Please model this.
Amino acid sequence: MVYTTPKQSPNETKTFGDLLLYYLKRKKKTQQMLADETGLSRSTIGRMIADTDHRGRNYHTTEEAVVKICVVLGLGPEQSQE
Model:
């Protein structure tokens, strides 16, 4: 598995993928761990982080997926609004 280094703080992030990487690193979880705990596929998590679908277009994350991720990562209302 390839790990990328997220930005140092959520304030420096630009995309949902950047935020997701930041919180994964902070919670010491891998993409596979998040996938297992949310019921999303590992490839879906990867697309969220890359912000690209399998055709190279921008990936649009569903609200339901964001809620699952927030619950698993223990993110409160402030973080979930980022």
Q: What stands out?
A: Residues 16-27 form the longest helix (12 residues).
